[in-house]
Amino acid sequence: MKSFNDFYVDKEEEFVIRFQELKERIERLKDKSSHSEMYTSDCEFSEEMMDIRKDLVTIHGEMVLLKNYSSLNFAGLIKILKKYDKRTGGLLRLPFTQFVLRQPFFTTEPLTRLVHECEENLELLFPLKAEVIQSSPSPENPARPPVDCATNALPEASSTLGEETMYIYRSTLAAMRVIKGLQKASSTSNPFSFSSLFSNQDGDGTGAVTAEHSAANSPVSQFCVR
């Protein structure tokens, strides 16, 4: 239990710091643009925007994976306790489950807020990417490549983003498939089953990621190459 908590808390603190740094980079970029500071080229500004975009997608995927780490560890503990009670005839599962629900690795509300804020930043910044990068056509480069309607990004940008984030994206989707399977309704009603507990958490807007709130079904999935 201690190793679960230590790992989760360390990673959560790391994400808070990294995401704050990303927000500061975004603000600096906005300030630079609003004060009409000149970039050496349109390409330089586009590259800076793309770097921020890639970092946002990456940290979003890592945060989703951490939430699924919480879910998987909880599922493992419940299965161990279920087998223990079945073999011994004890009732350890109920009190231990109540204890686990109060542990840091299962208290994912702050991380959930970070994930949502990250998605909001992606939606805010990049659906209007073409207008943000260049409000009017450049005389030197009047013919710009068409924007991909599925991702609102230039084709070459999507390609670069996909190459560098494909691993984290695939890992996220794999984790989501596992969680979706674990959360299938049980054949017997049990308020302390894995699916019941996470269903209740979702109703409160907290807890680990579920299928309907996953990276695969959230708006942010449009920023990853399928």
Report the span from N to C terminus. 36 Å
The beta-strand count equals: 0
Order of helices and strands: HHHHHHH
Strand content: under 5%
Broad structural category: mainly alpha
Binned, the helix content reads: 55-70%
- Shape summary: elongated
Radius of gyration: 21 Å
Indicate how many domains the architecture comprises.
Answer: 1
Question: What's the oligomerization state?
Answer: single chain
Total of helices: 7
Mean pLDDT comes to 70
The low-confidence runs, each spanning 5 or more residues with pLDDT under 50, are 128-158, 202-226
Largest sheet: none
Explained architecture:
- It comes from Vigna angularis var. angularis.
- InterPro entries: SPX_dom, SPX_prot.
- Pfam families: SPX.
- One of its GO terms (biological process) is cellular response to phosphate starvation.
- This is SPX domain-containing protein.
- With 226 residues, the protein is mainly α.
- It has one domain.
- The protein is 65% helix and 0% strand.
- It has seven helices and no strands.
- Helix 2 packs antiparallel against helix 4.
- The longest helix is centred in the first third of the chain and has 47 residues.
- The C terminus is likely disordered.
Structure keywords:
226 residues, mainly alpha, 7 helices, 0% strand, elongated, disordered C terminus, SPX_prot
State the gist of this model.
This protein is an all-alpha fold.
Secondary structure: elements and pairs:
Layout: H1 2-34, H2 42-88, H3 93-100, H4 109-125, H5 129-133, H6 155-182, H7 194-203
